[in-house]
Write a sequence for this structure.
């Protein structure tokens, strides 16, 4: 990635401003009241503290679509270990990494030519599924049944990568369920309302490596996009680069790294489930001319058979459903096709299902 190939260059209107706006900061929420508490096992947390958390999260989801959490219960050493293993993996030769390269048949593994909005991202990734096997539709076509099983590809080196990844994913799954419980309550729903949507989930974790870029004013680590799943939980190192499009004025603002915090954002599925009470927000990743960056997003997504549609409890004659139902599995595999080829049209988006 030494020279800047034209495939990396963003259109003028989407190029980053290197002196980006410093936000007053996305909301920082302390989850200490929830540590050791799980809504599904009948444990009871301090109700007043939880009510405060619910209100904070509701406000953050409305105003920003993003927030940061601390005292989240995920052990620092689990996060440090996966980051260390990721650096070891990405430090190998391209030839070694390509031994676990993903393709149209195997959706997980290493990849270095991903596109966002049909422009190549300045990054390389390693993806792994949280549940094995993960089931997805065999065909993109509506009405065609049949599923295929996806299994992870693990490299021989570093030898500790697989264990670090699997342990981390289990911790993040627990956190995701707790956050979904708080989001449900913030919408006036029972804490366990979303549990049914994550029984055989298709969630995955991505290890992102952004090498130093000689032209950070022309390229992006990840171009502007919204996350298509339900919830994203991001660990970022201390280099920073994430930018969020502020809802109040459309300005791109930096999300500064906070030690031991996770960055949370609601995805398109929550936008649909909530009938746009909460919105998925555009974000992108800046690159750095001097430093490499590692980030690790966990994408919490439902089973392939889920029909995503506004929840009945959140719609009525005064607030009718804004989306027609769509099948998550078909949506997912359709979106993945753009990883392997440049499309002539915009990739599938939830606005294609808006009523």
């Amino acid at each position: 990635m030494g020279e800047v190939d034209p495939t990396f260059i963003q259109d003028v209107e989407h190029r980053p401003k290197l002196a980006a706006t410093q936000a007053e900061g996305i909301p920082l929420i302390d989850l200490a009241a929830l540590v050791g508490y799980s809504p599904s096992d009948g444990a009871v947390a301090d109700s007043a503290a939880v009510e405060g958390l619910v209100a904070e999260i509701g406000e953050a989801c409305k105003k920003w679509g993003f927030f940061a959490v601390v005292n989240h219960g995920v052990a620092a050493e689990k996060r440090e270990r996966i980051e260390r293993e990721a650096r070891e993996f990405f430090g190998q030769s391209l030839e070694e990494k390509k031994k676990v390269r993903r393709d149209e048949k195997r959706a997980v593994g290493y990849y270095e030519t991903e596109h966002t909005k049909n422009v190549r991202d300045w990054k390389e990734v390693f993806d792994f599924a949280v549940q094995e096997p993960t089931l997805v539709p065999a065909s993109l076509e509506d009405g065609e049944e049949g599923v295929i099983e996806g299994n992870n590809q693990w490299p021989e080196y570093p030898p500790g990568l697989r264990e670090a990844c699997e342990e981390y994913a289990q911790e993040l799954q627990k956190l995701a369920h707790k956050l979904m419980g708080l989001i449900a309550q913030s919408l006036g729903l029972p804490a366990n309302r979303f549990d049914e949507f994550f029984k055989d989930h298709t969630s995955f974790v991505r290890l992102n490596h952004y090498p130093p870029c000689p032209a950070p004013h022309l390229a992006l680590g990840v171009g502007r996009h919204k996350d298509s799943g339900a919830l994203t939980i991001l660990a970022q190192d201390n280099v920073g680069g994430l930018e969020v499009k502020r809802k109040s004025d459309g300005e791109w603002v930096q999300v500064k790294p906070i030690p031991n915090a996770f960055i949370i954002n609601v995805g398109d599925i929550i936008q649909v489930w909530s009938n746009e009470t909460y919105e998925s927000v555009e974000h992108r990743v800046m690159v750095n001319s001097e430093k490499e960056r590692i980030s690790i997003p966990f994408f919490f997504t439902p089973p392939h058979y889920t029909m995503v549609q506004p929840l009945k409890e959140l719609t009525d004659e005064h607030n009718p459903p804004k989306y027609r139902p769509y099948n998550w599995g078909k949506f997912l595999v359709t979106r993945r096709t753009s990883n392997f080829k440049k499309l002539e049209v915009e990739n599938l988006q939830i606005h294609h299902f808006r009523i």
In short: The chain has a mean pLDDT of 89. The two ends are 43 Å apart (CA to CA).
